[in-house]
Amino acid sequence: MIKKVHQWILWLPHKVHWFFVLLTALLIPWLTRDAAKPGEWYPFSNFPMYSSFEKQAYYVYVTDLEDRPVALYPTFGNWTSGVKKIFDNYFKAEAKTLKKPSKKLTAEETRPAGDATLKQLIETGRYPDEVKKHAGFRLYKVDITLDDHGKIVKETSLVGQN
Cβ neighbours of residue 51 under 8 Å, at least 6 residues apart? Predict the structure, then answer.
């Protein structure tokens, strides 16, 4: 019996490939058997990471007081994604305080989150000399949605000023 299995393994093409097939089919589910979702272990997941998208998205950007865009990293030492994460934290906290979904907040209701974001950027920026070159900053939020005809609609609102 062992000799036949050994011969079968020698005959089997792509041995490394089949090792990983067995690993993912047997070992991964066994290792994750006590998890909330057994067998769910990235990258061995059956579910695509981006299987669906929300109908609404947004991004933020910073300008000076004359509405000229400010380069974030050379000024604050922070990337655009980092600024959005800072804003997201304040934005969601404000929505929770107002007991409204964050997507339903108006620009005025979002204002404390935008002001707090700018304040944090100014106070914790890596390059204070660059920050001091500007008289102040504005934070804009751009909502992106699809209209009924499938066209992308952008709506920009001022959400913070410092």
Answer: none
Q: Would you say how long the chain is, in residues?
A: 162
User: Could you give the C-alpha distances from 61 to 78, 81, 91, 156, in angstroms and in order?
Assistant: 12, 10, 15, 10
88-92: list long-range contacts, CB under 8 Å, 24+ apart. Answer: 90/114, 90/116, 90/117
Sheet (strand 137-146) strand order:
56-64, 137-146, 152-161
Measured CA to CA in angstroms, residue 131 lies from 30, 61, 115 at distances of 54, 15, 16
Interval 1-52: pLDDT, tens = 888 888 877 777 676 777 878 777 777 777 777 776 665 656 656 555 566 6
CA 155 from centre of chain: 20
pTM: 0.67
